[in-house]
């Protein structure tokens, strides 16, 4: 005979609803009680039936994370942190990839919305209007994009871009290029503003694919623009750009300084090691899950949490040639 | 009044079941008919209700892909190819990451099995016995591991490892190390055999984390083992190893030749550019989805599909010092 929730409640000396919450809403249960219940449940071989619970609560206990490109190493640390945090709250996380395609993004949201209790939407490529329409279908938390009236986690890339540009001007660079990302990227806009107000001659090159290939392709335009300092949309673009410049005989940092954004592992191993704006991706994943838990419980205000960024100076930046 | 499947059938001049299949099993419908039905459905604003369909068919039209580490760039091309192919068959793909942890892997399979029609299990870290037990819960296709009686997609890493080791011996290397991966990795075992039978002195160093850090950490052992050629578990380990050797004043390929496995983008941009065993990850993703569709329809034999690998020679290998 299978072990039921009643058996666990009796053996733990608590009410059935406490056992249920120990599994489905652990933050609502006293930690000691929860430990006891889980130990008893494990000892008896009790396994809560998620599908049965979904029928009674109307909850799936699944979250979705939608990312623009799972192949961009910026996302995995965010996904992993969100997943670990969600798991501690008894939520599974499913990841879906939209291939940087707004239409795929819309389809994925619509189908995922029926399978999950909430969605983390990371670096969306859809228009604000489309996202506002889709929020009727499922609670959202948006990461890396400011949309009025929606719970949002921002990494302050504008601040980081300002630090990056100031680092370049302090090194004597007077003509600086922003190698921007895809059209519709909120991050590109925030970086654009930081570069435009930096007090150096500013050149804007883009849109570019947010990948190594995007950076390789941008190298010719960077050379033609006669800049000595570059802020790239992300580390992948920066790494590709350094490769593209090198293929054309332009040295980094001797001829051109290059700064990336994200602080992915590959940047630390790149030759030269990449100077970059470090983004708190793991923290953003955890905060976003907390906000999504609140949104699912219908207690979310349209909070905006903004996380600080910082500049990590390594080898890809140096003094401007005089 | 919402548009129903009957409206679409009437307007397209086909039976209701044909409309249903045009959405849920497009490969069973004549392509011209399917195009007409989809055009009519789009014109009328009809949207098939996945949840309702799941109730009648007992199918969720979701697949899961379980990977050991979403941060390993080997997996995204496999995931993206599987996802694109599944989407063309009207299946969504959800990705779950197990953090290289067998216990998390088991939990994820058990919870995911209730939400999806089938699971692609990539590079599992569970024991064969545990996987055989779990297959009762949901149809599996296993990628990158040989388990008797289960539909399996293998990339022939043994063949690739043999090509790699032959390349090293042809360059005059007489003492070769395998810097292996995590304990329980099927791939490590296949590589071990290839290196052991190569006719050179073989040194086996491991287990190692399958990451850049794993390679950096292994550098000291590689130097102590006095080998001149190394086959690394994957490109991340190879890139980390090159970095770790460089920190200790050992040059690649002048002092030690290093070969990776996978052919990730970062290896092409590494200095030196990485010689590597190219793994057909995207093809494996597509084939695995086809096998999973068969498994869901209960027509799957325990087929094993083995895909060929190849050696890509770049800059991280050279003649052995004499």
UniProtKB/TrEMBL annotation, chains A, B:
Record CDD domains: HTH_LacI, PBP1_LacI_sugar_binding-like
Keyword check for Lipid biosynthesis: no
Keywords linked to the UniProt accession: DNA-binding, Transcription, Transcription regulation
Leader sequence segment: none
All residue ranges annotated as the HTH lacI-type domain in the record: 3-57
Residues annotated as transmembrane: none
Superkingdom: Bacteria
Gene3D superfamilies reported for this sequence: 3.40.50.2300, lambda repressor-like DNA-binding domains
Pfam families: LacI, Peripla_BP_3
GO molecular function: DNA-binding transcription factor activity; transcription cis-regulatory region binding
Alphabetical list of SMART domains matching this protein: HTH_LACI (SM00354)
PROSITE patterns reported for this sequence: HTH_LACI_2 (PS50932), SIGMA54_3 (PS50044)
Protein name: LacI family transcriptional regulator
């Amino acid at each position: 005979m299978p072990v039921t929730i009643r058996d666990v409640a009796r053996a733990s000396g608590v009410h059935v609803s406490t056992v249920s919450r120990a599994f489905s809403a652990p933050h609502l249960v006293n930690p000691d009680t929860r430990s006891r219940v889980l130990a008893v449940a494990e000892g008896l071989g009790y396994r809560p039936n998620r599908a049965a619970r979904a029928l009674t609560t109307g909850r799936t206990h699944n979250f979705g994370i939608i990312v623009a490109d799972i192949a961009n190493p910026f996302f995995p640390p965010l996904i992993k942190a969100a997943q670990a945090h969600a798991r501690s709250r008894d939520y599974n996380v499913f990841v879906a990839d939209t291939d940087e395609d707004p239409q795929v993004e819309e389809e994925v949201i619509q189908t995922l919305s029926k399978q999950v209790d909430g969605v983390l939407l990371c670096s969306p490529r859809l228009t604000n209007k489309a996202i506002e329409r889709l929020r009727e279908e499922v609670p959202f938390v948006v990461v890396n994009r400011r949309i009025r009236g929606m719970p949002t986690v921002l990494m302050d890339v504008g601040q980081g871009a300002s630090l990056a540009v100031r680092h370049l001007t302090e090194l004597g660079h007077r003509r600086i290029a922003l190698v921007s990302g895809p059209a519709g990227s909120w991050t590109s806009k925030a970086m654009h503003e930081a570069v435009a107000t930096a007090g150096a001659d500013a050149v804007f090159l883009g849109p570019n694919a947010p990948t190594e290939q995007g950076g390789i392709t941008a190298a010719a335009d960077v050379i033609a623009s006669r800049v000595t300092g570059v802020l790239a949309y992300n580390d992948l673009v920066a790494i590709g750009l350094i490769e593209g410049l090198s293929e054309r005989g332009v040295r980094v940092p001797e001829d051109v300084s290059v700064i990336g954004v994200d602080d992915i592992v590959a940047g630390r191993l790149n030759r030269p090691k990449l100077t970059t704006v470090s983004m708190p991706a793991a923290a953003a994943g955890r905060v976003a899950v907390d906000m999504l838990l609140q949104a699912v419980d219908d207690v979310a205000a349209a909070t905006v949490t903004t996380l600080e960024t910082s500049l990590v100076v390594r080898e890809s930046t140096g003094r401007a040639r005089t």
